[in-house]
Amino acid sequence: MPASLLDPIKLGAIDAPNRIIMAPLTRGRAGPGFVPNELAVEYYRQRASAGLIISEATGISQEGLGWPSAPGLWTDAQVEGWKPVTEAVHAAGGRIVAQLWHMGRLVHSVFNDGKQPVSASATKGEGRAHTPVGRLELEEARPLRLDEIPRVIADYVAAAENAKRAGFDGVQLHGANGYLIDQFLRDGTNLRDDDYGGPVENRIRLLREVTEALIGVWGKDRVAVRLSPNGETQGVDDSAPEILFPAAAAALDALGIAFLELREPGPDGTFWRRPKPIWRAALPMRSASGGRSSAIPIWSNASAPARPGPPTIRRAGIRRGPRAISIIRRWLTPRSNQTRISCVPAKAGTHLRSVSDGAD
Ligand SMILES: Cc1cc2nc3c(=O)[nH]c(=O)nc-3n(C[C@H](O)[C@H](O)[C@H](O)COP(=O)(O)O)c2cc1C
Description:
The protein is an alpha/beta fold. It contains nine helices and 15 strands.
């Protein structure tokens, strides 16, 4: 059926009144104790007209959070800080899911009482971390022991339960951009020789187990995952992404998650400044409308190929200006052969409001 950007869509159990998904964007505006404050209330309330807001990456534990003034979801104070945010979004007619974040080796020890960061293996992130005391050289991580992995999964579960208490509509597992889950997925950073390393089925184990655990809290219809299958991210890469990521997507599809979002930094992307090769293999996800699974593949960049079949959420890789407006205008036109959905960044979202009002 032809659809436009402003048509509703079901994302698992979430009924989005339009196909504009706000990308997760770290803001660094939380208060002491990684507690969201009135800035977050206002920021997200202003954007509640999106079909769905994916929150800024939100730490599941102190071990997993190494970004100054990013919010968390492991303390009661953080839950209380999020409550007015979700209330404001809901009062304005919106929906918001919490993006759950463990940064793994990218957490500088200054955030965690001097404790060495953890990862799949003993590797070191590139460059310097942002910390409250300035930029500091990243440190070598220590591999998580097998007997610690249940505790890490329990941290995700606790954060997911806290997301529920805080009034979110669901959660998105941050499996992208070179953070902990990604460090386990890709063989450049996963050098393990136990059940979580080596063959692809082992490297996707943590992703699957955490997703299963989140489903245990929220149900499969309210759990989403974000992956970044295309090229190196923050020093994390894989020698055969065309084998790894379809296997990861198939595992998530089997769990029936609400949607899978694929971060695709392309040549026009602004997050990374240099061009990257784009990997375009089709992932084995089934259609939201016709298939057995509710999982939806979401391409998050306009440079992703137009694909027939399942609905595709695409992101413009744009910030502002005439190009944003013209892309959005195109997406407002119903298409006959596929459903086009856009994941528009916050700033472009502002312009979108102007577009729908008929003004630039
Ligand atoms: C300032 C900034 C903060 C971001 N924060 C997050 C985040 O918290 N979680 C995440 O998954 N991606 C994050 N991203 C990635 C964006 O969601 C998006 O995928 C990326 O910006 C690619 O779009 P672009 O090509 O328009 O830059 C961030 C990007 C930027 C520029």
